[in-house]
């Protein structure tokens, strides 16, 4: 059941029938998203079900032609789009495999991340793991290292798991979207991209850019975050995709959304698809309307607020340990930032007072790391360094950062060795190792905050002075 808009000056209509279409009276009863009463003509159910399609055949052919032509002359040169010449079938097959791997890596990196940011990451990744076979031999630690700063670390883990699965099953990347979807971390979008771009399968790709372009081309007045509507967008994209150049067409549609039909400032005057654009037609004849009215804004998912007390524990060296070390804890293998290293941190209930945060931190250190601040260490320095908010897609995390400099009592140096027991994995690293490690953006920010604090407050970074409050427990080096 597809609603067709035969004329570019037609008003916006819904993609799916959330309107009341009763077979009994064959009328639409509700006024949908600003569609005027005049346009709510009686529509027979059969007419809707027989409606040819969202784009007529003629429009589809023309749109393919103009978009492909525009793409050929205007697409951005990006590393994952590079192709090389081949002189025989084997080379051609290798090239296709390489392309599929490159598309896969780039598309995963591009999810939620800007192209300009991804380029450097992509180049570093391909230098380290130029083929899927190289990647399959990597460890999660190495992968996280290269991924550090890109966010959404599950993506990196799935890429690694996917590569291992493919190599274990023979090493050839599946050539169809349906087979690709069986690989961990590959969904409808990525499978469509790999299958159409590398293997020329005529399957669609729908991302935020494609939804925006189609929503404007057809003045779609439905919530684009609704799963039933998203399904419709996939169907429309499937209808549009060019059977001879599916990969280029999909990229053209996405490229148009990324560079011309942008969310806030679409450049309609240089848009190759303007003659098919209903949103533009509406905006031309109605001064209160704008193409940016489409797609309509969905209701934002409310973020959860979490609060975390982060403690940068610095263990001062003794005669044997020339430099001080920082304690890092590995996050659990499941959940947010799975398997990544961070400074010891503990979730606290809301905007807690510093004393309560310290209590929670002390408890965590004692229970998990066997660091008993009162018994096994002398506190050289303990200061609150600052706080900041880090936004994840669904969580607003406020981090309270403190620096805790400790001198171990006695000759117990087990703290300087990595520990991996059943409940927690942790290690001590010096500042050089820490600086070169791949850390998440928030962990890097915490470390930089502490470094700045030390530069400002302490005369020498290796010999922090004792605080007045704690000088009873201070031990001189
Ligand atoms: S004419 Fe404007 S709104 Fe319509 S698709 Fe092109 S850039 Fe987007």
UniProtKB/TrEMBL annotation:
GO terms for molecular function: 4 iron, 4 sulfur cluster binding; 8-oxo-7,8-dihydroguanine DNA N-glycosylase activity; adenine/guanine mispair binding; metal ion binding; oxidized purine DNA binding; purine-specific mismatch base pair DNA N-glycosylase activity. Residues 109-259 form the HhH-GPD domain. Binds 1 [4Fe-4S] cluster. It comes from the Eukaryota. InterPro entries: DNA_glycosylase, HhH-GPD_domain, HhH_base_excis_C, MIG/MutY, MutY_C, NUDIX_hydrolase-like_dom_sf. It is found in: Mitochondrion; Nucleus. Belongs to the Nth/MutY family. GO terms for cellular component: mitochondrion; nucleus. Residues 467-477 have a biased composition (Basic residues). GO terms for biological process: base-excision repair; mismatch repair. This is Adenine DNA glycosylase.
């Amino acid at each position: 059941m597809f609603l067709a808009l035969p004329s570019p000056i037609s008003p916006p209509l819904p993609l799916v029938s959330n309107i009341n279409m009763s077979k009994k009276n064959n009328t639409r009863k509700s006024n949908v998203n600003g569609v005027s009463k005049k346009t709510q003509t009686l529509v027979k159910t059969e007419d809707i079900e027989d409606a040819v399609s969202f784009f007529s055949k003629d429009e589809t052919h023309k749109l393919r032609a103009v978009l492909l032509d525009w793409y050929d002359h205007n697409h951005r040169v990006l590393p994952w789009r590079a192709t090389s010449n081949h002189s025989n079938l084997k080379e051609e097959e290798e090239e296709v495999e390489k392309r599929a791997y490159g598309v896969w890596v780039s598309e995963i990196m591009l999810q939620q991340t800007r192209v300009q940011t991804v380029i450097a990451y992509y180049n570093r990744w391909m230098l380290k793991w130029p083929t899927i076979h190289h990647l399959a031999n990597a460890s999660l630690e190495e992968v996280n290292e290269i991924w550090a700063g890109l966010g959404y670390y599950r993506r990196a883990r799935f890429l690694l798991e996917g590569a291992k699965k493919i190599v274990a099953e023979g090493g050839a990347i599946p050539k169809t979207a349906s087979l690709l979807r069986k690989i961990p971390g590959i969904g409808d979008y990525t499978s469509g991209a790999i299958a159409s771009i590398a293997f020329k399968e005529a399957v669609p790709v729908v991302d935020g850019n494609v939804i925006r372009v189609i929503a404007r081309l057809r003045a779609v007045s439905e919530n684009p975050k609704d799963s039933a509507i998203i399904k419709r967008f996939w169907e429309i994209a499937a209808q549009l995709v060019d059977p001879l150049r599916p990969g280029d067409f999909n990229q053209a549609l996405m490229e148009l959304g990324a560079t011309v039909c942008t969310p806030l400032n679409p450049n309609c005057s240089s848009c190759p698809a303007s003659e098919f654009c209903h949103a533009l037609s509406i905006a031309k004849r109605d001064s209160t309307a704008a193409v940016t009215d489409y797609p309509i804004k969905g209701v934002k998912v409310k973020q959860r607020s979490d609060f975390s007390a982060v403690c940068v524990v610095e263990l001062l060296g003794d005669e044997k340990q020339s430099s001080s070390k920082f304690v890092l804890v590995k996050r659990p293998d499941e959940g947010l930032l799975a398997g990544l290293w961070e400074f010891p941190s503990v979730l606290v209930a809301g905007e807690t007072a510093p004393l309560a945060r310290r209590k929670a931190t002390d408890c965590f250190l004692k229970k998990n790391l066997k660091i008993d601040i009162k018994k096994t260490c002398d506190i050289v320095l303990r200061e609150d360094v600052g706080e900041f908010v880090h936004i994840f897609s669904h969580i607003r995390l406020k981090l309270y950062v403190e620096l805790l400099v400790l001198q171990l009592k006695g000759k117990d140096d087990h703290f300087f060795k990595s520990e991996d027991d059943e409940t927690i994995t942790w290690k001590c690293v010096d500042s050089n190792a820490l600086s070169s490690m791949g850390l998440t953006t928030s962990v890097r920010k915490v470390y930089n905050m502490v470094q700045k604090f030390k530069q400002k407050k302490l005369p020498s970074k290796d010999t922090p002075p004792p605080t007045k409050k704690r000088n009873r427990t201070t031990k001189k080096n």
